[in-house]
Task: inverse folding
């Protein structure tokens, strides 16, 4: 196959269909320890997406999808109550240092454009946005006064700025709204973007322009090679609403839109549920893969119980591990501050670690190449009582060192739980005889 770094193709998918191996595909293949031809074939088929806007010059590409490591996204951004750009940029720097693969800018107040451009300039991670959030602040219009062209124009603006993937709630059309109204829910709609589209349609009487003018949207995405992250406006916001008529109706529509996007060589990721009991998660992953033709699946959690505010990084990690082991490809992190406030840097760190654990545990279960090697190295360090190596291999070395340093040790080779009764130490001694 030909390795090509020129503009003889429009999108990663377009190149893959032509048999062209792009530089981004080569980077992903090397990171994943997978033959680059396998990457190309799956990008062409749509089961792997490589979000890579050609205007995002600092991007270090990642693949999302079939056979790859489970990727993680971090949400951040400016809101009216917390509109300090420097605080959010500090979160960006910390998240990048912690190795996250994606950052979504969910800014919805103030200098959204300036923050977005700074974020894209400094980030090697892929960047996602929800353009509909920006419509109201940028155009300074009331919801009822927003025009269909405004919605499409904002996607173009984000594409020009270098955004790699955009969440678009195209499945929230009049038919989906009617299904939602006819099938009452406890939590109604909890998707911010989805609720805005629902309210706009009710106020204006118009069809969702992202759905009605989907081909125009695809042309914009193809122009910049933006990956379309099809948003789940009807995702469940509580266990009571999971896998209901509204959610499944929308998922079927997202599958139809996926085929249309692929016909125009636009990559697609499908966004999935937020709250769901553990026994429903595997079935939901199967439904998405069937109805959306194997497109990469991106889930928020899912959170497996509704009663743990302050600990939702744990409820999300449990659900994320189950979802990813069943075939989900992309986890949106959840922090302890979920449902309570905008997360601090420390909240973000906890959310990242919890989600990293979930993703890695799932990769072991999915037999992702070399995933288990990390764990085997840790086991070897433990049997060798090599504490320095254990710290270096730890998913959070700082915390591991702190626990060790705070212990009062009877024997420096062991830990303070067992001391001289350490099983590893005693078996070592016994085997020497």
Result:
């Amino acid at each position: 196959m030909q390795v090509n770094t020129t503009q003889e193709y429009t999108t990663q998918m377009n190149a893959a269909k032509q048999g062209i191996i792009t530089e981004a595909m080569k980077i992903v293949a090397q990171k994943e320890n997978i033959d680059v031809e396998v990457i190309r074939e799956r990008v062409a088929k749509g089961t792997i997406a490589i979000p890579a806007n050609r205007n995002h010059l600092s991007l270090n590409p990642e693949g999302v999808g079939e056979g790859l490591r489970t990727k993680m996204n971090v949400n951040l951004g400016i809101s009216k109550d917390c509109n300090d750009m420097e605080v959010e940029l500090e979160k960006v720097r910390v998240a990048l240092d912690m190795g996250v693969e994606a950052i979504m800018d969910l800014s919805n107040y103030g200098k959204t454009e300036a923050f977005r451009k700074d974020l894209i300039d400094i980030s090697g991670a892929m960047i996602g946005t929800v353009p509909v959030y920006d419509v109201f602040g940028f155009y300074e219009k009331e919801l009822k006064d927003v025009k269909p062209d405004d919605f499409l124009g904002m996607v173009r603006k984000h594409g020009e700025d270098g955004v790699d993937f955009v969440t678009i709630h195209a499945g929230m059309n009049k038919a989906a709204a009617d299904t939602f109204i006819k099938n009452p829910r406890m939590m109604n709609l909890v998707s911010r973007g989805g609720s805005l589209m629902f309210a706009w349609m009710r106020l204006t009487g118009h069809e969702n322009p992202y759905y009605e003018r989907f081909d125009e949207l695809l042309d914009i995405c193809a122009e910049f090679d933006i990956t379309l992250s099809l948003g789940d406006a009807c995702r469940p916001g509580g266990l009571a609403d999971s896998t209901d008529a509204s959610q499944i109706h929308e998922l079927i529509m997202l599958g139809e839109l996926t085929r249309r996007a692929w016909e125009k060589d636009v990559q697609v990721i499908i966004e999935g549920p937020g709250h769901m009991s553990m026994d429903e998660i595997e079935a939901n992953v199967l439904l998405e893969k069937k109805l959306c033709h194997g497109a990469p699946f991106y889930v928020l959690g899912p959170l497996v119980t509704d009663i743990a505010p302050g600990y939702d990084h744990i409820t999300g990690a449990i659900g994320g591990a189950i979802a990813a082991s069943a075939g989900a490809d992309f986890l949106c992190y959840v922090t302890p501050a979920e449902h309570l406030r905008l997360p601090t840097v420390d909240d973000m760190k906890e959310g990242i670690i919890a989600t990293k654990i979930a993703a890695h545990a799932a990769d072991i279960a999915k037999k992702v190449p070399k995933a288990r090697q990390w764990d085997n190295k840790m086991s070897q360090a433990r049997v060798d009582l090599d504490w320095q190596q254990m710290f270096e291999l730890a998913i959070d070395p700082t915390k591991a060192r702190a626990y060790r340093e705070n212990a009062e040790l009877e024997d420096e080779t062991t830990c303070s739980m067992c001391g001289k009764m350490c099983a590893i130490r005693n078996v070592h001694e016994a085997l020497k005889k």
Observations:
- The CA atoms of residues 49 and 64 lie 5 Å apart.
- Residues 345-365 form the longest helix (21 residues).
